[in-house]
Structures are given as structure tokens and as C-alpha cells.
Write a structure and sequence with these properties.
Helix content is 26%, strand content 37%. The protein is built from five helices and ten strands; from the N terminus they run βαββββαββααββαβ. Strands 1, 2, 3, 4, 5, 6, 7, 8, 9 and 10 form a ten-stranded mixed sheet that branches. Strand 2 and strand 3 form a beta hairpin. The radius of gyration is 18 Å and the shape is elongated.
């Protein structure tokens, strides 16, 4: 059963999503309007601004696909398989040096010979506009059985909540 944004579960799903974005460090980023595959990316979540940020190299296919701006999807699954989410919004290359310095870490530095001043360092910003979120209240076996039953017939799996929620800040 699909719920929409005005239902009672919106706040619970939004909280589950924001918690998942804080707990997990990596998801899959895809540029929606390009014929390219999604790729794993470490994200930095700014809950107040409702923005995801990523550090990448300007000479990657991903950065080339973004160009002067594109639409993107970012998907995330928590390790415990209790939250599944697909977020969407525009994505751009940011020139905000202060933000880059806030996010910079030894892990990011490993990818760039010249450190933070490497000319290839690119900061991506993706304001979140919408997300499809599923929360699963079941163990993996029950989840598998419910999905199988749903795929075999007219059974609607009863596993948790699902809604498409508006995230625009």
C-alpha cells in the first residue's frame, strides 16, 4: 500500500530517512537524465538545509555527466535492512570552499595527490526535493516470504510503511 505525503506516517518516515542518512556513510548516486550507471558514493547530509554533498574528482564520468547541472537520484539501504530510500533532486558542482573545508577528511585526502588544493577536487551538492521511503518492521526471512507472496498473487505485503514524501527545505 502506498501512502502519500499528507498521511500520519510522513514525519516518522522523514525521521527514519534522516536517521539512515546519518548512520550510513555510502549509497548509490545516479544522474537521472544520463545513460550511466549508479555508483557508490560517500555522502554528507546537512539536515537543516536538506542537502546531500559528495566529494569527487572533476575528471570522473560522474562529474562530466553533471556538467553545469543535472537531476539525480541517491539510493540508500541501511545495514539492518529496515530502511530503503530513493531520494531525488537537482545536482550541481559547488564552488563553496568553506563547505569543502568543513567536509574534508583524511579519507577524502587519500583520493587526491594534491590534498584539498588538488585542482581535481569537486564538491557536489544535491538539494533533496522528494524521497520514496520504505521502513521494514520484519526480519529478513519474513521479508522474503512476504515479497514472494506479493509477487505470486494479489497479496499485499504487510511489512511496514511506505510513502513518497516531500523534502524541499
Amino acid at each position: 500500500m502506498t501512502h502519500h505525503d499528507n498521511d500520519h506516517n510522513t514525519e516518522a518516515l522523514r525521521k527514519a530517512l534522516f536517521d539512515a542518512l546519518d548512520d550510513e556513510r555510502t549509497g548509490m548516486l545516479a544522474i537521472s537524465d544520463r545513460a550511466s550507471h549508479a555508483q557508490p558514493m560517500t555522502h554528507y547530509f546537512d539536515e537543516n538545509a536538506r542537502v546531500l554533498r559528495f566529494i569527487t574528482a572533476s575528471d570522473t564520468g560522474l562529474a562530466r555527466d553533471i556538467g553545469t547541472g543535472a537531476q539525480a537520484h541517491f539510493t540508500l539501504t541501511t545495514r539492518d535492512r529496515e530502511v530503503y530510500a530513493c531520494m531525488s533532486g537537482p545536482i550541481i558542482v559547488s564552488e563553496d570552499r568553506a563547505l569543502l573545508e568543513d567536509l574534508w577528511s583524511p579519507a577524502a585526502a587519500m583520493w587526491f595527490e594534491g590534498g584539498i588544493d588538488d585542482p581535481k577536487v569537486a564538491l557536489l551538492e544535491m538539494p533533496l526535493h522528494e524521497a520514496a521511503v520504505w521502513t521494514v518492521d520484519a526480519n529478513a526471512l519474513q521479508f522474503g516470504i512476504e515479497m514472494l507472496r506479493a509477487n505470486l498473487g494479489d497479496h499485499t505485503p504487510d511489512l511496514g510503511d511506505h510513502a513518497v514524501i516531500n523534502l524541499a527545505a
